[in-house]
């Protein structure tokens, strides 16, 4: 899957704000609705299959019918180490930035309540499970830098100034723009002069799902379950873009505006000509919220060696609080080697805001089959989600239903329904040691995009004692190639600066468990 990502400059959010906000909410709706993986190291090693396979604490957050397979109580803790690495190329300069972090992946317990009925008839058990499960990890760090001799971030600002008087009056005080003979704004920075540009984009956060689940076993043939899910969600993005360059001389500015104040030695603007500047664009975003959902599942065992499973999850209603900090700073120096400011710097207004809304994720339905062999098993499942059915809801006192309709229309035009396919297997090498492998093919949610993502996984399991066990899984995500642009413009005949990024992602999960 290859996409072009654009980091909006801070004042781009001030210009034509409702349209940009509507598109931002479309992106956020997918971020909030999408789950990557969940469960223990055992099920992760097998590609995340759980629809037609039970007896693992992953069933608490997956198919709750799997709880009916427990013949005794179980408790486990899963921790992980996620490593993200981004290799980027920006104007011929290569940068590699890695980020590794430990975290809690899953914590769960299942309490077994046997009925002591005839094993071939009636209810065999009623089991209760509780788990905290990480469904998404947003930790990532992208950095790139290079020398741009084609354009400046100021070009993007001048486009915005043409359509936004508030911003125009504000950024005019930076002394990095002037108004030409045609009445259009133009940069007073040297466009074709080499400018050092640096992007630092750090994202952190998580999506945890706390589930209370119930499962039962009828005659060792039919397993049913239900779960109640509670979502907690936080996403932080901190984007800082820095540009170092030189302003034009008074004569160069006068060529575009014969009456410019920059050519008047008695005007304050004159001292901002032919000097070095540092332009910093800051765009911080925080999304946090909570949500609820419900799920039902069933597994039928027609023969000892086959399981047939189905699992249905309702949409998740997630209430989101969005907070942003958006501003620009400019400092001026005698030359690029000086660290003491030459003149008073510029600081923009903070164009951030706080905004509350709700996102309703799509229904999730999965169907699975499991085949058991003498020393192992093979399980597969297919899952369907219609991302175009995601809904945005205003939850303020006076909802803007026209804007709500606009956002939902954009969601419908951007996303589509997709299938996810999972397959995994387990082989008992000895009575204590098991080897596992799996593959998770993830369909694209975007209309017009047919390239899927995938996660390949391997793992081992070892029974330490009659009650203690340990599982290990390693997952390699598909290399994600994309283009990232720090800013954009439309009124200038110059190419948009673009960094080529290659992202690799590896997750290692360790589970320690005890049966009792």
From TrEMBL:
Gene3D superfamilies: Outer membrane protein transport protein (OMPP1/FadL/TodX) (2.40.160.60). Keywords: Receptor, Signal. Residues 1-22 form the signal peptide. SUPFAM superfamilies: Porins. It comes from the Bacteria. This is Hemin receptor. It comes from Sphingobacterium mizutaii NBRC 14946 = DSM 11724.
